[in-house]
From TrEMBL:
Reaction it catalyzes: 4-hydroxybenzoate + H(+) = phenol + CO2
Membership in a protein family: Belongs to the UbiD family.
Protein name according to UniProt: Phenolic acid decarboxylase
GO BP, sorted A to Z: response to toxic substance
Domain 3-octaprenyl-4-hydroxybenzoate carboxy-lyase-like Rift-related: 97-291
One of the Pfam families matching this protein, by short name: UbiD_C
Domain 3-octaprenyl-4-hydroxybenzoate carboxy-lyase-like C-terminal residue range list: 300-419
Transmembrane segments: none
Highest taxon in the source lineage: Bacteria
GO molecular function: 4-hydroxybenzoate decarboxylase activity
Domain 3-octaprenyl-4-hydroxybenzoate carboxy-lyase-like N-terminal: 9-86
Record's signal peptide: none
EC id: 4.1.1.61
């Protein structure tokens, strides 16, 4: 079976990891509430959505384990796999037709009535598509640019789109200056590799993101030509909305519950006029709950690749990096180093803060600390940090506008915590050990059978 959303769902089923929701679910608040209950970490298939014949799926890539399963690797290999795909991208394979075009509508459609587009929060301005991958093409080099953008449903064939992504917004403004509409395709229901590659920072790497997805999958990604616009889309996607971003047209968008768990304000945003809807037989609508792990993790993984390589240029003994979900997958960085010289902890802090303006707080630990265990990191801070020596504060730096305390002044203070111990005192900081501890399994010892 081709690498697709359906093939991945079958993989999750075989592993007893996909939960079936049989009870009728309302797309207004209830569907989102169920995904939020698990922070988007539990794959759910919503079989019965009130008012619709189309099922939905969410929570499928909210964990590193699920991404690793999709790419058929161990989760410890994720950053190396992504780096390989960036440095050695593959190629796509153009097909004359594909499942995503089993049904084609070019007029008389109402996407709000066709698909269960959810309303997530009390103060959201309406229903939003949150898992839609927007596809555009570089007009000079022909590279396919993809990114996940939120889209507000305005009417039967009309969407407002928030285009903060630098590559997309600059391209749109260039078309607008010429008085031309910009062609875009909105793709829903894809293999996790396509979702992951869409988060690749275009300005950093300048790659065709479909080619990166091909390398992640391990074979050429099959694509088909759209019906009404000059773009290619994944042949095995579930749903595609073809359209044009109109020049000099804006529509109120928001408020909307955003990445950090706060409402983003209403702003005037460009409009997509949908020219065609294509979809598979019995399509599956994909949902990502905003601020869930599934929302944060794909972007965090790509940012971790950049962070790791940035720090490695300064501290070659960096072991691993982690952008935490509580920090939005961007604000809080935990870095593990194999310390070989004094000062490396602080050098790693400076490198991390310089890697991306969104990084706000950095903790550097020795390689005996599990950076994915918040308790272990806090233990290192508690036992290896003296505030007057090990905490660095940099005032007045750039931050992320998604973090509301930054918006109070338009700048952000940055902080680094060097939670590594002095090399001369290594014996004093040796952790307690029990021989054979890792081989002990509690289930072999405990029983409730009295």
């Amino acid at each position: 079976m081709a690498a697709s959303l359906r093939s991945f769902l079958e993989q999750l089923k075989r592993q007893n990891s996909l939960y079936l929701v049989k009870k009728p679910v309302n797309p207004r608040f209830e569907l989102g509430a169920l995904l939020k209950k698990t922070k988007g970490t539990v794959p759910m298939f919503f079989q019965n959505i009130e008012g619709y014949d189309v099922p939905a799926v969410g929570g499928i890539v909210g964990t590193r384990e699920n991404f690793a399963q999709a790419l058929r690797i161990n989760k410890s290999e994720l950053l190396a796999k992504i780096t390989e795909a960036i440095t050695n991208p593959g190629e796509t394979r153009l097909l004359p037709s594909g499942p995503v075009q089993e049904n084609v509508l070019t007029k008389g459609f109402d996407i709000g009535k066709m698909f269960p587009i959810p309303t997530f929060h009390e103060k959201d301005s309406g229903a939003f598509i949150t898992a839609g991958i927007v596809v555009a093409k570089d007009p000079i080099y022909g590279r396919r640019f993809t990114s996940i953008r939120r889209m507000q449903l305005n009417g039967p064939n009309n969407l407002s789109i928030l285009i903060e992504s630098p590559g997309l917004i600059e391209q749109y403004y260039e078309f607008e200056r010429r008085g031309q509409a910009m062609e875009v395709a909105i793709v829903l229901g894809v293999h996790p590799a396509i979702t992951l590659s869409s988060q690749l920072p275009t300005q950093t790497f300048g790659l065709d993101k479909y080619n990166v997805a091909s390398r992640l999958i391990g074979e050429p990604l099959p694509v088909v030509k759209c019906k009404t616009i000059d773009l290619e889309v994944p042949a095995d996607a579930e749903i595609v909305l073809e359209g044009r971003m109109l020049p000099y047209v804006r529509h109120p968008e928001g408020p909307f519950g955003e990445l950090m768990g706060y409402y983003g304000p209403q702003t005037m945003q460009p409009v997509v006029e949908v020219t065609a809807v294509t979809f598979r037989n019995n399509p599956i609508f994909q949902v990502i709950f905003p601020s869930s792990y599934e929302h944060k993790l794909p972007n965090a993984l790509m940012r971790e690749v950049v962070l790791f390589n940035h720090v490695r240029h300064v501290v070659p003994t960096v072991q691993d990096v982690h952008l935490t979900m509580a920090g939005g997958g961007r604000c809080h960085a935990i870095i593990s180093i194999k310390k070989t010289a004094e000062g490396q902890g602080k050098q790693a802090i400076f490198a991390a803060l310089a890697s991306n303006k969104d990084v706000k707080h950095v903790v550097v630990v020795n390689d005996d600390v599990d950076i994915f265990d918040p308790e272990d990191v806090e233990w290192a801070i508690a036992t290896r940090v003296q505030a007057d020596q090990d905490i660095i504060i940099i005032p007045g730096a750039q931050g992320t506008p998604l973090e509301p305390s930054h918006n109070l002044r338009g700048v952000s203070a940055k902080m680094g915590i060097d939670a590594t111990y002095p090399l001369a005192e290594e014996e004093r900081f040796a952790r307690t050990q029990i021989p054979g501890y890792d081989q002990i399994r509690l289930e072999d010892y405990l029983t409730l059978d009295w």
